[in-house]
Amino acid sequence: MTRPRLGFDRALAGLLLISAALATTSLASARAEPDAAAKTRLTHLLVQDCGSCHGLTLQGGLGKPLLPETLADRSAEVLAEIILDGIPGTPMPPWRGLLSEAEARFLAETMKKGLTP
Ligand code: HEC
Description:
Layout: H1 8-28, H2 36-54, H3 68-71, H4 76-85, H5 101-113
The site of heme C has 21 residues, from helix 2 and helix 4.
């Protein structure tokens, strides 16, 4: 008997990979603003990993759209808290430990600006 699959396995595998990749830098730069290389890496994470649930263009999928217009009523601070704490009772996972506060803040600002220039 096969059960329906929603891509959780892939998302979880992704989480483990990011966890390994980010562990060092997150600890080293918990507060500092991400440098240019980190911003490139984080934007890649936003597309590939957040995008695995929210859609590769962040238009929504399993997770809600993460577009400037849908996020306009929330501040970057609030969005960074959502990213760090997740949304209990939903598949939205907490990223604290994988992302520093500054990194979550950068992702929130990137989502509010929009991915396309
Ligand atoms: C395993 C799937 C999954 C992954 C991976 C994921 N999310 Fe989510 N996310 C969700 C779901 C599902 C929701 C909607 C929860 C609900 O019902 O309120 C959500 C909600 C959100 C919200 C709130 C949106 C709103 O309009 O209220 C934000 C912000 C968010 N995610 C950002 C991110 C970011 C940034 C990442 C990557 C660092 C990420 N998510 C990775 C599943 C995921």
